[in-house]
Amino acid sequence: MRIAILFLMFWSLATAQTTKTISLMVGGINRSFVLHVPSEVSNPALVLFVHGYGGNGTNFANDTKADGIADREKFIAAYPSSNGLSWSMYDTTEYPFLLAVVDTIDAMYKIDRNRVFCAGFSQGGFISFGLGYKHPEVFAAVAPVSGHLPSFSTTAALPRPVPLFLTFGTSDRSDVASFMTDIATWKRLNNCTGAPVVERPYPSNNSHSTVSRTTFNCDQGSEVVYDSVITGGHEWAMDTYSKVNTTEEVWKFFQKHPKRPPVPQGPFIGAAPVPGIIQAENYDIGGEGVAYHDNDAANNGGLYRNDGVDITGDSATGYKVGWTVEGEWLEYSIQVATTGFYDWSASISMGGDSAAFHFSIDGKAITPRTIIPSTGSWDTYASISGTNVELSAGPHILRLDIDRSYANFDWFSFVPHATTGIHPAAKAPVEKAFHKIHKFDLNGRRIGSGSLD
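Predicted structure:
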């Protein structure tokens, strides 16, 4: 009987339209949010609408008129209230409450966790930015209005691109340049490339519109979009004569950007054959934390591939992985033809004092921590080599681990050891530099060689 009663209760919740205020105790503080659930929802999207200074959830529901759109489009709208007049915009103390709102609604209505979004005005815009950066595992996309990216560090790469839709007026309380700084940061985080698409006026069929829309295409199908409202102020615009219905535009953007499944790791241009040469820039696809780890989101060089790995060089002399920092790594799908012992070499430049690296196969180190001394300049590449690495036939994942900053990596190669089938008498000692070094200029001419054993 109890099971039947519970079933009927949740069936009623799922089929009947409802608007109510829900209280939560988070961090010892009683918080609340207004919840609007359309009738007949099934695995719905969820949008948090976060008010500005001095507001509350009830008033912001009235300002945005989002309930009507939620009823039409069958998504759940939630309007959290700040603790007092103001949100804590510049830190993460508000985020446990907002994450608890998402989890509470999910427990009640089984939302689509790939379609959880946040839009906010003014201080709520700061919150939207912050949630997109700090919690990309929860929020598929964010839409701040007249708000800025909070001042906490944004140098770390995002684990996935987070689509962003920013709206501001050219006569807003903040100047246009400050909003463009936020856009530039998010473009870097999402690895946006290419020229933007500009629509002026937006929409194009409204000659009275004072809105200009700029769209950047970014990694993994994401976008960075901003609407600048000419002479517009600090507002959530709802005037469709000369502006737009901001709530409608926010929802249209969110509809385009559910959270996409992560790209599985795989070869960039086919598994590299061993014996053979592996170009450093042809690391696997899969993205940050899957196929590579880069310590910052800056795409130094900005060449060859559109992600966080820093690549230098050019199409004529070849591309190289550069700006390497201790703790970073790159992985490569390889196909070993024959089980046996192999000699390895790597083409590397190092214009500083020293750097270090090692190779692993399928998570197991196969070379010692190898020291790279200066090659004289960043444009002078040395062939560094080692011997007797045991490899088994078949597919494997080769990892380049950076043990000490900085070096530029051009290519690696593995060739059968001269005396095959004989196990090396002993492994090279840790911190051994390498067996041989040959220096080449950028035209491929050898300019020196020697042994550092």
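Summary: The chain is about 20% helix and 35% strand.
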